[in-house]
Design a protein that fits this description.
Layout lengths: L1 H23 L4 H28 L5 H30 L8 H28 L1 H29 L3 H21 L7 H29 L4 H22 L1
């Protein structure tokens, strides 16, 4: 119990620190967006999909899990188009720009993923302490990046600092709630793997269709591309180091 409490605090602080770091670099937003794009896509390819396949065996074939990834991608596409059409009404209660609905959708998706991170930690500790420690290290490694991505999504779509911090707190709290939830429930690995596969589709859409184009919108420079590659490399390296 004490171990999980410490981990929950660490997850909150890592995510919040990442968001505040992004906020301080708001004048270099195109560079941070480029980094975030690479990080989000890397999490999908190098973390969520491999973990989904590992947990899904022998209950689901790789083809089934990839189908769920495609469903997640296409579902996010439909939701994104709906938000573009009705985003103004979605954002009115925040007094934000009409596009704030896209920020809400993106930040909500990232926060839901963070909740799954907390579930993953708690479920891993239900298996054994050693497995729990490995999963915790992997989650904490990209929590800082999650905070950066959440703040960037909101700031890019609405530019509202208060809304960005509000979503940052939600995202930072999500893994804590996920850990707490596992004290009362036990999620079968085969079901958890499907959720991970679907979130991989969410992240691929978010990175490829939103963050990458936006990072180059006003700054089609070599440096933004380099930052995207750096974001992917950093997350890939961190995941491989933790995995080994």
């Amino acid at each position: 119990m004490i171990t999980l409490a410490v981990i929950a605090c660490a997850a909150f602080l890592a995510t919040f620190a990442g968001g505040m770091f992004a906020l301080r670099l708001s004048d270099k937003l195109h560079l941070v967006l480029g980094f975030s794009a690479g990080a989000v896509v890397a999490v999908a390819f190098f973390d969520l999909l491999p973990e989904a396949i590992t947990l899904g065996e022998p209950h689901h074939s790789p083809a089934t899990l990839l189908t769920w990834t495609a469903v997640g991608f296409l579902l996010y596409l439909v939701l994104d188009r709906a938000v573009l059409l009705y985003g103004k009404s979605l954002g009115n209660h925040h007094h934000a720009a009409p596009s704030s609905g896209r920020g809400t959708l993106g930040a909500g998706s990232l926060s839901a993923h963070s909740f799954l991170d907390g579930l993953a930690i708690g479920i891993a500790f239900q298996d054994s302490f050693s497995v729990g420690a490995i999963v915790t290290a992997a989650v904490l490694t990209h929590d800082f990046s999650d905070g950066i991505n959440t703040m960037n999504i909101v700031m890019k779509n609405s530019g509202d600092r208060k809304l960005g911090i509000r979503w940052l707190v939600i995202d930072a709290s999500a893994p804590v709630l996920g850990i707490i939830a596992t004290l009362f429930i036990s999620l079968p690995p085969q079901d958890f793997s499907l959720a991970l596969a679907m979130f991989a589709g969410f992240f691929l859409y978010l990175g490829a269709s939103d963050l990458i184009p936006e990072s180059h919108h006003s700054h089609p420079q070599f440096l933004t591309t380099a930052m995207t590659l750096l974001g992917a490399l950093v997350l890939y390296t961190a995941i491989r180091v933790i995995g080994d």
